Every structure is written in structure tokens, then in C-alpha cells.
Amino acid sequence: MDCAEDDCENEAAVRLHIPWGENRDVCTGHARVQARQDGVVAEPLDDMDWL
Ligand SMILES: [Zn+2]
User: Fold this and answer.
1) If you measure from the C-alpha of residue 25 to the centroid of ligand 1, how many angstroms do you get, rounded to a whole number?
2) Which residue from 9, 14, 18, 25 lies 20 to 30 Å from 41 (Cα-Cα)?
3) How far is the CA of 10 from the centre of ligand 1 (A)?
4) What is the secondary structure of 1-51 as a DSSP string?
5) Distance, CA 1 to ligand 1 centroid (Å)?
6) Structural domain range at position 25
7) Within a 13 Å sphere around the CA of 7, how many CA atoms are in the beta-carbon half?
């Protein structure tokens, strides 16, 4: 599955649980940025130890 961000073709590796919107599956790069927002929970889709 590709990253949910527009113009990003990286493999989605993280599911972001967003309190004010729908869940998004994004790549690690986008997850690092978006997971900093208040209330967002990042859940690895696979076993990863980057968090
Ligand atoms: Zn991405």
C-alpha cells in the first residue's frame, strides 16, 4: 500500500489514528511529521522499531 499523502509513492508503514479525521496509512517520513500533532497516535503496520 502506498502512502496516503499526495505525491508520495513510498510504502505505507504506519497507521495514524487522527482524532479529528479518518485513519491514514503513511510512510515513515510522513508519520514522523504528523505524529507530532496533539492526539495523533502512530501504530506501526509491521513490526518496526523506529518509534
Ligand atoms: Zn509519505
Assistant:
1) 9
2) 9
3) 6
4) -B-SSTT--SBP-EEEE-TTS--EEE-HHHHHHHTTSTT-EEEESS-----
5) 11
6) 1-51
7) 0
Residue pLDDT tens, the chain, 51 long: 899 999 999 999 999 999 999 999 999 999 999 999 999 999 999 765 555
Residue 43's contacts (CB-CB under 8 Å, 6 or more residues apart) are: 14, 15, 16, 17
Ligand 1 (ion): residues with CB under 5 Å are 3, 5, 8, 10, 27, 30
The tally of domains found in the chain comes to 1
Q: 17: closest CA among 46, 42, 48?
A: 42
For residue 49, what is its C-alpha cell? 522499531
